[in-house]
User: Fold this.
Amino acid sequence: MFTGLVEAVGELVDRTPTTGGLRLRISTPIARELALGDSLAVNGVCLTVVLAAQDEIAADVGPETIRVTTLGSLPEGARLNLERPLRADGRFGGHFVQGHVDGVGQVEDLRAEADFHWLTVTFPKTLAPFMVHKGSIAVDGISLTIAELRRDRFDIMIVPYTMQHTNLGRVEIRARVNLECDMVGKYVVRAAELAGLNLTALRTGEVTH
Assistant:
């Protein structure tokens, strides 16, 4: 379990093909605090550390993860948001983030307002039932709040600290980002489906704010 509060920004050093998947080698200042078998959220994707050195770690990415996230298409040198799991005795911030990506969105706009920035992200229509105005969303593993919600996109306001301490500081228009919807919302939708309400069949245009 994660919180969406990014601990460090790493760099993708190397991407090596394996049988059906990839092995990512990541440079990060928190490498020395990680051990083999530890979980690590990488751009919002929960991975397992398979190699750990003084300033680098490695993690394997399977075929399914390549299909449903952006990790398979990241170039060498890409900036990666990293977060270790929440400790049982730790203070909770952000929101409950599992590291299980629900879909891939696309950055449509980034505009400044004083020291802050507005970020617009489009999302697959299948995620519409899980989106809530003023609700939580994880974008590349960052816990953020949906400020405006439209039928196929949402707007979030980024504070200066987040721009400076995550990969959003270098995000480009049309960049693909991993999206994880609020876990509570997913359970609500599932419970409604079991009660006979097929919320995932809603048309995109039926989502309002």
